[in-house]
Amino acid sequence: MNLQSTIDWFKLKAQFGNEHLLKVWLADVVDGSEQEAQLIRQAIADGEINNGLLQQLQGVAALVCSPALSTWVKRLKHSEQPQADLEQCLTCYLEVVSEISHYLKQQ
Q: Helix, strand, or coil here: 26?
């Protein structure tokens, strides 16, 4: 996509193989993104990171091939500032979703 991409598109497309199925699957990711973002917002409000959310985010990062999101998830595992790091993770997550949405609109 571009140099500032939050997703490794080459790896994602190679991993998926079928362009049509990739689009359908990415649309599902976007459809569920508000619920995912709400879970992150709730964790910010609670001021703590639960393991279930960490595993969920780690899975999303791996499935959409996002090194940026993976980095934030790793940082969250050892965070001394959970609220600030969760806010940054939410920002990164929303950037990933935005990038996917942009990709889908171009197709």
A: helix
